[in-house]
Amino acid sequence: MRKTIAYCGLDCGKCDAYRATVENDGALREKTAKLWSELNKVTIFPEQIACLGCRADGVKTAYCEKMCAIRRCAIGKGVETCGACADAETCRTLEAILSNNPEARKNLKTKE
Fold first, then answer.
1. How much is the pTM?
2. Which residues are within 8 A (CB) of 17 and not within 5 positions of it... i.e. 6 or more apart?
3. d(CA 51, CA 100)
4. Boundaries of every domain in the chain
5. How many CB atoms lie within 10 A of CB 93?
6. Which residues of the chain are modeled with pLDDT < 70?
7. What whole-number distance in Å separates Cα of residue 48 and Cα of residue 29?
8. Which pLDDT belongs to residue 1?
9. Which residues share a beta bridge with 11?
């Protein structure tokens, strides 16, 4: 499976934080920090917008690194993604992501 597919099935390669990091795009970093600050009602600085993907080695956003329950669970269970977890079909935390992201569900079923 591509390293840009997160544990939950989302495609990190489509995330603005990932894109800003790999493209070294300061304007996208600023735009993303502003948007995420508004959406989350916290201050996020452009220098905090740095991520190489949920499952890849290297820098991650603060949320992905420390707060994402799905990432913590998958690492704890030692699965490549939630698609490899025996509890995936009944996991309420994962379903919160998959119910709004049909592409994530498809990504978890794809063997690349």
1. 0.88
2. 29, 32, 49, 50, 51, 61
3. 23
4. 12-109
5. 13
6. 111-112
7. 8
8. 73
9. 5
